[in-house]
Amino acid sequence: MDRELILINIIGIDKPGVTSAVTSVLGEYGAVVQDIGQSNLHHQLNLSILIRIDDPAKSGDMIKQVLFCCSRLDMMVRFTPLSEDVYTAWVGRQEQDRYVVTLLAREINARHLARVTALLAERKLNIDNILRLSKRPGLDLPIEQQHSCIEFSLRGNLPDREALQRELIEVSSEEGIDISFQKDDMFRRNRRLICVDMDSTFIQTEVIDELAIRAGVGDEVKSITLSAMRGEIDFKESFIRRVALLKGLDVSVQQDIIDQLPITEGADRLFTILKKCGFKIAILSGGFTFVGRYLQQRFGVDYLYANDLEVQDGKFTGKHIGDIIDANRKAELLELIAQVEHIDLAQVIAVGDGANDLNMLGKAGLGIAFHAKPKVKASASQAISTVGLDGILYFLGFKDSFLR
Q1: Fewest CB within a 10 Å sphere: which of 95, 106, 112, 189?
Q2: CA-based torsion, 234, 238, 239, 241: positive or negative
Q3: Contact (CB, 8 A) for 274 and 396
Q4: pTM
Q5: What domains, with CATH codes, occur in the chain?
Q6: CB of 394 within 8 A of CB of 102?
């Protein structure tokens, strides 16, 4: 059967009615749309339509009318005939795996893009689309108030995914930017649960250090805390040793800590948006329940698991109550909450900064090391170190223009 395949590319200053006018002409000649795509960047329209003409005798007049139409609209147009073999090859490439690379920083420069895209080109990954997720910053906006995020949609076969992930992490570390590399599948677009560590993640302090300062043992406790977060000593051991040093401290200091609690940048925005989208939020913390309850009430947290301190006569005894929430327990709780909510683990996000978060980061479909210690960042598949918690929204594909 005689038929023609023609790719039509239309370029020019964007204006209302271009797509309508062109497709109206094509419709008069019975053109079948095999594929269509349109982009608008800096008021420049790029419209591509791949059509099939089953009666080739009509194609000459159709091309002439499209030319007249584009001339009236002050648009440039190009026609490219395609063979059926070329089209069939295009159809076959639809079966290739799809990935998303997200670049995030206060500011992104051309060198960042060059290094990342060079790694993609080495593996013959085709960039289907480049999308700016962040809004355009004002030229005089202070750098600390900026977010810059660019998303690449990729297609291709990738036998060495882990190797590419390691190389992207190296670039991230060397360039001081955050790079997320994810499989683009239905789970990426349908996350439903976020499990967040509390100390040094949800809040910008370690509560046990704050308690220790008020107990006059700040340096000793802080040293143990840092050693535990770096993974040098067992978390349970470090927890028991630190809590013992709080013996005799008056419980009234709890309110003082809550009153001065430094909430991490972007927390309000992140959790407000996720709650609107129907997410469940869980705090899984090796910290303390009294701070967790405050955050639970303020941010609408659905699940809270943290540690309780024993109190007698209004003072801490230096002991804890119940099981310690350590690395293994965090991972178990993440799985348990997902089961209760009937959520696949691939739909779960986990966020943390310390070695005791690695197990739950590994369980989640999207595990993010947030402003993490070097050992944690090196072990996690995703990391955010340049912006606040709301940077997670970009890893989920949210666009600033949708979040007004």
Answers
A1: 95
A2: positive
A3: no
A4: 0.87
A5: 4-92 (3.30.70.260), 96-183 (3.30.70.260), 193-206+262-402 (3.40.50.1000)
A6: yes
Q: What is the pLDDT of residues 374-384, one digit of tens each?
A: 888 888 889 99
Q: Strands across the sheet with 4-13, in order?
A: 32-41, 44-53, 4-13, 76-82
For 274: left if phi > 0, alpha if psi spans -120 to 50, otherwise beta; the answer is: alpha
Q: What are phi and psi of 6, to 5 degrees?
A: -130, 125
For strand 126-132 and strand 148-155, is the pairing parallel, antiparallel, or unpaired?
antiparallel
Asked if residue 373 lies in contact with residue 355, where contact means CB atoms within 8 angstroms, the answer is yes
C-alpha–C-alpha distance, residues 230 and 181, integer Å: 25
Position 105 scores a pLDDT of: 96
Q: How large is the C-alpha radius of gyration of the chain?
A: 27
DSSP string, 219-273: HHHHHHHHHHHTTSS-HHHHHHHHHHTTTT-BTTHHHHHHHT--BPTTHHHHHHH
DSSP string covering 320-364: EES----HHHHHHHHHHHHHHTT--GGGEEEEE-SGGGHHHHHHS
Task: Give yes or no: 197 in active site.
Answer: yes
Answer yes or no: 199 catalytic: yes
Q: Look at residue 190 and give its three-state secondary structure.
A: coil
In terms of Cα–Cα distance, which of 203, 225, 176 is closest to 388? 203
Catalytic pick among 54, 55, 197, 400: 197
Q: Is residue 346 packed enough to be buried (19+ CB in 10 Å), middle (13-18) or exposed (0-12)?
A: middle
- Residue-wise pLDDT tens digits, 52-91: 999 888 899 999 999 999 999 999 999 999 998 888 888 8
Helix/strand number for the chain, H first, E second: 15, 15
Q: Catalytic pick from 54, 184, 199, 302?
A: 199
